[in-house]
Amino acid sequence: MKGVQLLLGFALLILASSLASAYDPSPLQDICVAIDEPKNAVFVNGKFCKDPKLAKPEDFFFSGLDQPGDTANRLGFKVTTVNVEQIPGLNTLGVSAARIDFAPYGQNPPHTHPRATEILVVLEGTLYVGFVTSNQLNNTLIAKVLNKGDVFVFPIGMIHFQFNIGKTNAVAFAGFGSQNPGVITIANTVFGADPPINPDFLGKAFQLDPQVVKDLQNKFMNGD
Ligand SMILES: *[C@@H]1O[C@H](CO)[C@@H](O)[C@H](O)[C@H]1NC(C)=O
């Protein structure tokens, strides 16, 4: 009898833990600090939902992705996002999109999307794109030159980049496996952290003179 009870308890424990994981979705935002007072709550995991009876076509609609983004900036690129911020109907649905414009030799610098795989379609121009595998896979560079009509995939979490190697503007559209993919730009995160990360520490980590680290921190903390 004791043995049966023990087994039952164990089975219930397993059931409870599997149910728990089944009902605990992946995070849809960077942080979600719990709040006791729902009146002041800003986020749930994703966003609060409106009454479905009040949904209208505009909730699932965005217009203007035919318009080029302004690439007159240091890196010569502009991302126009179409995620849950622009289309509220995307909430909980796990997809979003973006248009990326590149000036000649413009670049989308090394970055990662913490919550989404990205699939990129080139509409105009020639892009050199790639991602680097994790430490476990020896940081292998998987890169390719893409032309009009070519498609490339950046797996979730991998550091990746796009570089317009043509003499003309380039345009690409991207699809993401999240309503809110998030962006972590490597240089801005490491050297533009506010307050700054200890320069001696970063110097050792990156094999750089701490003064070089300080110069980088000045650049990335004042603008982009
Ligand atoms: C990574 O490098 C190690 C050591 O050289 C090697 O044994 C392993 O096969 C490599 N793995 C991959 C995925 O290349």
From TrEMBL:
Entry annotated with the keyword Glycoprotein: yes
Organism lineage: Eukaryota, Viridiplantae, Streptophyta, Embryophyta, Tracheophyta
Gene3D superfamilies: Jelly Rolls
GO cellular component: apoplast
Similarity comment text for this entry: Belongs to the germin family.
Keyword Metal-binding found: yes
Location within or outside the cell: Secreted, Extracellular space, Apoplast
Protein name: Germin-like protein
Organism: Citrus sinensis (Sweet orange)
Its biological purpose: May play a role in plant defense. Probably has no oxalate oxidase activity even if the active site is conserved.
Listed GO MF terms: manganese ion binding
InterPro entries for this protein: Cupin_1, Germin, Germin_Mn-BS, RmlC-like_jellyroll, RmlC_Cupin_sf
Record: residues binding oxalate: 108, 113, 118
